[in-house]
Amino acid sequence: MIPAARERSFGGLNREAFQARLPRLVESLRHYDARTFLRDLVAGVTVGLVALPLAMAFAISSGVSPQAGIYTAVVAGFLISALGGSRVQIGGPTGAFVVVVFGIIAKHGLDGLFMCTLMAGALLVVMGVTGMGAAVKYLPRSVVIGFTNGIALLIASTQIKDFFGLRIDRVSGVFMPRLLEIGRGLHTLSPQATALGVGALVLLIVCQKFFRHVPGTILALVAGTLAVHLLRLPVETIGSRFGGIPAGLPPFHVPPFRPEMIHPLLSPALTVAMLGAIESLMSATVADRMTGDRHNPNVELVAQGLANLFSPLVGGLPATGAIARTATNIRSGAKTPIAGIVHALTLLAILIFAAPLARDVPIAVLSGILLVVAYNMGAWDEIRDLLKLSKTDISVWLATFALTVFADLTVAVETGMIMAALLTIRKVAVTTSVIEETDEEVEAGRIHILQDKEVPDYAVVYRIHGPLLFGSVDKLRSIAHGLGQLPPIVILRLRNMTAIDGTGVGALEDLADELHASGRTLILCGAREQPARLMTQAEFHDHIGHANICDDIEKALERATVVYAEQASRSSAATDEA
To answer: For residue range 56-76, what is the model confidence (pLDDT) as tens digits?
Structure first.
């Protein structure tokens, strides 16, 4: 046995706790080999090329020069991969920050943006160190979808001017006035810019639909640039608007610190920090689903915080995990954080050796790329599912969406959270009941009792006790944690689950998908009135299978016997064919 004094030899932490705070890169390098490096190298170069036009587009739409986006992708992308809690996360500038950054620059200037990013970085580090990584997941599904939809619509609206090559001196930072200005400027439409924008849009859609492994952003960028260079098209380019991109390493400078700006920048800094935390952990969760891995949210937040502390030192933007680039990284064969580091070094090499080639990149093509990004990040499919839920979930989504578009992202998230919390209290209160324990009531509950029933070896039974709402869905992860040790059938008793919301339904769907992907079956039983009604509205029965939702534990065990027999029959048939 190891003495207690020896156990606490890592700054007061035992060995297991100390290792849990290490970046995933440390663990990945322990068994690293040449074959893994080759995969990471290919993936890193691929995602680096994909990130190039996106980084420039995000920077231009945020109101800064294109190189600021590349500098962010290089510095923040390197730090997020090297120090983060995910194996394959790719970090850098993202569309989620475009509207926020544009507003900060308009109100406080570039120095205000840099100071705001530094403050957000410090907040993210504190969140990670204090274990707030898991708390970020407590945001209700309706709030997340609402502001994601709103941000996507705002980003799309900012791209219309450059997509059509409209001659508008200054576009408003507010949604409705922006649309009115665009409407008044439609007579200045440029056919050449529109053709380039539409061409990029069509190319990206075709690649996404039919050739998913082909980097459509690179094809659109190269094709558009060649068209401008060879045909001498009279359209606005990076060269004409910004004078090109300076070659060489990102310049280092320390932004001025102005104490009087702390108070006015506190709200924007909180918005940037929360948005960065949510986006990065959502991206890491998507990566977990694609790879079967599990990220460390607190280590990830510390890395995101450090990335945002260093990004302003090179004139960069706020950074976070990028879902689309992370997915590209995985599909390209990435295995470890080395791929993300290679992605950053690829962009650095382009800066040093190929920066002058960016002069002829047409702004309209970058706008076409961002329109596709806005559509993809919008989570529009989620709206259809959300409209099947309760009126409370729909009202929270609608309020968050409307306030994001017509007011302010900070106000939208704060209002959505307050509404969700108040409506959750109401939901819990409505589902609370006082019932007399009569003989009939006791007898009716007998079929839900597990004590006098035998659970077969091929099944395991879990029970949810209490409401499954947006603040508690993370507890479902305990079932999937030991996925490899679970038997073929998992039964989930809902008899003591008093209430559920849209986030809870989504968590059950995720659990069912995860079990199904591993060849296992989820069976639910004993749902009370409110959970049963909401799951029916959400068409959850179609997702899991009507036969796999049972009235009580007795019927669930009978269903488990049938499912196991079917699985055994299929396995026997497959063996005979082999």
So the answer is: 999 998 889 999 999 999 999
